[in-house]
Amino acid sequence: MSARPTRRRACAGRLAALATVCAATLAAPAAAAPPTGLVVVPRPAGANGLSYFRLGVRPGRSSRAGSIELRNPTRSTVQVRLSAVDGLTLSTLGSGYAPPGSLAHGSTRWVGVGRGLVTLGPRSSTRVPVTVKVPAGEHPGDFLSGVSVEALGQDGQGLSRKGVSIASASRYAIGVEVSVPGPRWPLIRFTGAAIDRQPAGLTFELNATNPGNVVLQGVHGHVLVMRGRQIVLSRAIEAGTFVSGTSISYPVTAFHQFPPEGTSYRISAWLDYRGGVARLDTAVAFGHTAAAVQQHYGHAPPPGAPSSDWWKILGVGLIALYALGTTILLLRRRSREARPAGQT
Length: 344
Description:
Elements: E1 4-9, H1 16-27, E2 39-44, E3 53-56, E4 62-72, E5 78-89, E6 95-97, E7 111-113, E8 117-120, E9 124-133, E10 141-151, E11 159-161, E12 164-166, E13 168-180, E14 189-198, E15 201-209, E16 216-227, E17 230-242, E18 247-254, E19 264-273, E20 276-285, H2 288-296, H3 310-338
Parallel strand pairs: 3-13
Antiparallel strand pairs: 1-13, 2-4, 4-9, 5-6, 5-8, 5-10, 7-9, 10-13, 11-12, 14-15, 15-18, 16-17, 16-19, 19-20
């Protein structure tokens, strides 16, 4: 929920090192600037030392959250775009923010940004106010949104490797956490599970949602996957944040698993949160689509693995045996009927 820089990717790729550099820059915004030259400093209205906006607002009221200070220490003019964006839950638990230009939902519509486009001259600075207006009749709860801050005209730091070209751009996201007074009902629910074949391995996806009105922190748990009596994986779900009104598909990867189509797995999981425990116990099957993807990756079931069509073969065999038995009985009956009376 703090102010954080993120990377917008033009092509898929690993940019962990670049993201680390950007995060280190934000830790001391007044001392250094990222590659774009833009320095972003959140200034909450309350002197609470936070790097994001946190405030309580009653329904039908508006409040000043604070301001965002923009600094341009370079000798060039910089244009900056600011916009309110949705707060999200990362798939592995943790707060994140939607990209700029995405459709606003819920509490994001409450956030007002003083200026959507700012032009900063060389070695200049300015502050952009941020306000929150909660509609009348809004239900109580804790809500997370964000303000996206991005310098326009970035050339993008190019990275070319093995014929793949990757371009990235620096973007800041500053959290806006709004608390509407009233009763709280923390709640997490599992809504099911799925199985998918990814390049890294067989991936089980645990679908969960936070329909309550609390941004839950410290959510943690465990997942167990069985194939018959065999333990495929047993793994902890590390503690993280689950934003209210959001859903996730938590991925758990099992390596060196190349099942035939139709293989069934049993998934048991739990998530412990402040206010309760969510539990999951369900079966998932390795379907045709996932099997085709596995084949595309060049992975086939190990030698000796049962075929996905074993039940079809067994069914055909039983039908053949039934037909043969029926034919033998009919032939015997006809033979008896063809014999003269009294002959045995």
